[in-house]
Amino acid sequence: MRPAIAQYYPGDSLMHRLDPRAKFVAVSALAVALFVRDSFLGLAVYAVAAALAYAISGVPVQWFWRAFRPLLWLVGLTFLAQVVFAPGTPFFSIWFIHLSWSGIELAAFLSLRLVVLVLAGSVLTLTTAPIALTDGLAWLGRPLRRIKVPTDELALMVTIALRFIPTLLVELDTIMRAQRARGADFRSGGLRERAHALVPVLIPLFVLSFRRADELALAMEARCYRPGIVRTRLHPLRARPADALLLLVTAAVIAAGLLV
Amino acid sequence: MSGAGEVSGPGAQDFGAAPAGMRLACRGVTYSYEEARAAVPAVRDVSLELRPGGSLALLGASGAGKSTLLQLVRGLDEPEAGAVLLDGVEPGADGYAALRRAIGLVFQIPELQLFAPSAREDVAFGPRRLGWPEERVADAVSAALALVGLPAETFGDRHPYALSGGEQRRLALAGVLAMQPRLLLLDEPFVSLDPGTRRELAQILGRLKTAGVTIVLATHDVDLAWALCEELLVLRDGAVVASGPWAFGAADDDLLARNRLREPLLVELWRRLGRDPATAPRTAAEAAEALA
Fold first, then answer.
1. What is the enclosing helix (H) or strand (E) of A94?
2. What is the SS3 assignment for B242?
3. Helix A20-36 to helix A130-140 angle, to the nearest 10 degrees?
4. Model pTM above 0.80
């Protein structure tokens, strides 16, 4: 069992080696551009750029599909809503449904935009280790410390949460197996029965998580963790020429998309 | 231990209405875990035979595949190849599912799975899932609690998390025993227990053995394995490297060392006394008797 979204695919491609901060800025900028630009041509430029980035990352296409599948219903819903409700001259009408070419065009545009957005986002999450991503975000959030936002603490919280997701999944799996061995059934019955069947799983999982949180807090104190002091790093993030190049290329792509 | 009763309770013959132990056979059982990019073999072509009422020690270094094998036997995973035969019945044949339900599996650190608001309720979980009438459930719960030395009158209404570590372990065991298994699989049951609780647990297992329950015990504790089990099976990287009755020749030293095991203390004692290790006693009491 593993989470479908924001999964990291370990590797050593150019995309993997780029600085997480540069990647985050590039993807964010591209996302904004995606929403500003409203022509198929612009969209196509961004789609090609995102696809190229994905290809460079060397991650198998199935991994994108895995990240995208949970969002499929959203894309489908967007498409349907636009087809049905978008204004335009209908060529076919029944009851409240009025199909028009402009509606279909708009629906296709909005759905494609979502696909490109997820594609660009998955290049970021698939090629960046969650810890590196958090470090990058903490760095980018530094100016917020001026207004007393505890960015380092937030980053640490996210890091710890990410660190324990796999642990909790393993524990969840063990507890479910143990209760299955005692005859629990998680697969049949209605919604009510299934929710009820989860009680013997969730209670031990919560108890375990709280115990672990207690122990982790003690262990961190024993290792002199104190909130509010600036942390130094063994491997500080270091931007390299390739990162600057990424930002330049992204700027060029965004400009190209806006101008075509 | 706080207020834990002696492990008295009913004798072996009173252990529910459990029919005789189950016969277990594994034929070429194979299983791998799916990792990110590759399948990692965990159990490779494991075959074993265990007579009804027999007892088998499953030994091997950490990560040798002991837990996976136990879970395959219980049917929590299906083997990729090979089959687990229960009382000679092939998987998929009539009655196989019912036989599977007559297998009790005690997980590593099973007290982590306690969830009910009272000891009694927690133990009753399994029997209720078997669809037994409430009366039979109550009887089975009382018998199981008594068997593990937590009599229902004293402990039945206590909250599981208010019990000591050793009591929790025994309560979790009771939760499995209440289902009156004919084959009991135990995954490292002695881990992180104080010596007193270890001893009590070993006594409980001894009593189950006398009652005729077939037992498979995965453990690192070779002394307890030697005391409790007639046969052994050593796994290494998921494959069987030794099986059958315990035998301690010169060649076995090497086998034990390579699998990060050692021979049981009583066997070592017998060898150092110049006696035949194969006739080594199973318990300190037997040793004292033989030496007196």
1. strand A90-94
2. strand
3. 70
4. no
Yes or no, beta carbons of B101 and A10 under 8 Å apart: no
Q: Which of residues A48 and A230 earns the better pLDDT score? A: A48
Looking at residue A168, the DSSP 8-state letter turns out to be H
Distance of alpha carbon B95 from the chain centroid: 23
Residues of B in contact with A204 (CB under 8 A): 112-115
What Rg, from alpha-carbon coordinates, does chain B have? 19
Can you count the helices (H) and strands (E) in chain B? 11, 9
R_g of chain A computed on alpha carbons: 23
Residue of chain A with shortest Cα separation from B174? A182
**CA A255 from centre of chain:** 25
d(CA B133, CA B140) in angstroms, rounded, equals 11
**Buried b / exposed e across B153-163, counting CB within 10 Å, b at 16+?**
eebbebebeeb
- Render B105-174 in DSSP notation, one character per residue: EE-SSGGGG--SSSHHHHHHHHHHHTT--HHHHHHHHHHHHHHTT--HHHHTTS-GGGS-HHHHHHHHHH
Cβ-based contacts of B31 with chain A (< 8 Å): none
Report yes or no: A90 at the B interface, CB cutoff 8 Å: no
Strand partners, B39: B34
**Structure confidence by residue, pLDDT tens digits, A206-248:** 999 999 999 999 999 998 888 777 777 777 788 889 899 999 9
Query: Is residue A185 helix, strand or coil?
Result: coil
Give residue-wise pLDDT tens across range A190-210.
Answer: 888 888 888 999 999 999 999
B246 phi/psi in degrees, rounded to 5: -60, 135
Residue of B37, B74, B105, B112 best to disrupt the A interface, most CBs of A under 10 A? B112
Q: How many CA atoms within 13 Å lie on the side-chain side of B143?
A: 21
Q: In this model, does residue B82 exceed pLDDT 90? A: yes
Q: How many of the other CB atoms lie within 10 Å of CB of A126?
A: 24
pLDDT tens digit sequence for B133-181: 999 999 999 999 999 999 999 999 999 999 999 999 999 999 999 999 9
A22: tokens are 């540069």
- Inter-chain CB pairs, A–B, below 8 Å: 52
Beta strands in chain B (DSSP E): 24-34, 39-50, 55-59, 81-86, 103-106, 183-187, 214-218, 231-236, 239-245
A218 CB-side CA count, 13 A: 6
- B161 vs A9, A201, A207: nearest CB: A207
Report the gap between the CA of A149 and the closest CA in chain B (Å). 37
What is the spatial distance between Cα B290 and Cα B292, in angstroms, rounded to a whole number? Answer: 6
CB-CB contact of A173 with B116 (8 Å): no
Q: In terms of DSSP H, where are the helices of A97-240?
A: 101-127, 130-140, 151-181, 191-197, 199-222
* pLDDT confidence of residue B248: 64
To the nearest 10°, the Cα dihedral for A54, A57, A62, A68? -50
